[in-house]
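Why does residue order matter? Because the sequence determines the fold. Keep that principle in mind as you read this record.
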Amino acid sequence: MKLFLDTGFSEEVKSVREWCSIDGVTTNPSLIAKSGKSFRQAVGDICEVLPDGDISAEIISMEYSQMLEEALSISDISKNIVIKIPVSEQGLRLTEELSRRGIRTNLTLVFSLPQVLLCAKAGATYISVFMGRIDDIAFDNAVNILSNAVSVVEKYHYSSEILAASIRHPVHLVQTMQEGVHAVTVPYSVLKGLYKHPLTSSGIDRFMLDWEAAGLDLQK
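Structure:
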């Protein structure tokens, strides 16, 4: 499974890279806006920190010619850029064109299996299914959608990878692992909590107390 960090802050990428091997970063307009940097600076800084990872950067236009212009401009920032595109009629059209040009894409804001099928047929590199937002409206079951999405792309041999997004807590991550999802993107706050467990903390405390009580020294 590929593990991505969902952030607009290069500082968070640097922090995570000190202790966790991540495969890339996903950004969106909201995350970039929070970074306090210009779009190209924020994305460029992230690419510099993680030069071998897939960095998803999103277009904002809804008119096809402007979408294409933005996508080509963004792809020039770095070789590891993946163009992030909201699923729509023009978004699917753009995905097919970028695929023909050898430019990788991440189709985002996906909530249903029909959308997954259209994205896969358009040649999307990643298809981002939003778990948390599906759960929020209780209209459908996010785990079932993800499981079926994986089955669709694998059964019909599409090249797309299913990416679980909108991860709210560790249980979401566990569910994606159980369903064989190809990739997951996790916010900094959630990722920082993944290595923590109360039994781990209490176990470390117990070891240290026993060690101090015995008066031992690692150098002896």
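The longest helix spans residues 198-214.
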